[in-house]
Give the backbone structure.
Amino acid sequence: MDYKKVLMEAVNAVLPPACPMCGKPAPFVGGIRADICGSCMHNINYVSEPACLKCGKPVKDEETEYCSDCRQHPKNFERGMGLCIYQKPVTNSLAAIKYKNERKFAKYYLEEIQKRKYRDLLQLKIDVIIPVPIHRKKRRKRGFNQAEIFANGIAEMLNKPMYTKIVERIHDTKPQKQLNPGERKSNLKKAFRGNLKEYQRAGMPKRGLLVDDIYTTGSTAEAVTVALKQLGIREVYVFCIAIGKGFS
């Protein structure tokens, strides 16, 4: 008898795993506990081609190389990619991770990245994984940085090192979602600073993957990219869990 399996089945029966989107108990499908409930699964839109060659947002057709935002406001990072579209139930799920400490929900996203984006990420030939940092006050209050959770999972997936202090957030800025595009840029001006000692300790990498949970206007990714390139990183790629609608 597989006692470990029996024990896990008993635990799941009493404390069933939660759907990583809505938080309700995950259902059984064919006698097997599903990773996600059916209604949530059908409402997730994963990013697919055609997508902007710069930021990774969906575009209307394959003839459109860049989205209107990237055409009007060129970005300093080389390329961005995203797993899914930032809409319900993903919005609620990522908010639960960030504000309700539902860190276990990250496992689902990392499994989907492995299935859907692993080859694309591998082709970037990244030297180092860098999570978008949060200010120490927010980290102390929250207890963790959600971008770091995803970055760590991707680092393990790609068998690459993750460094959390190559770039630091030195100003505790207002939440970006409360601001318009112009205010977002001003809000993030000089918010990030590269750490030369950490960069040297990391071996002075030249190709970095910047990881965050959400990409909307790209203001955060752009600000961190500038700080990284000032250190000496030549190529910065951006990966986010969810891509939303927004303009620089």
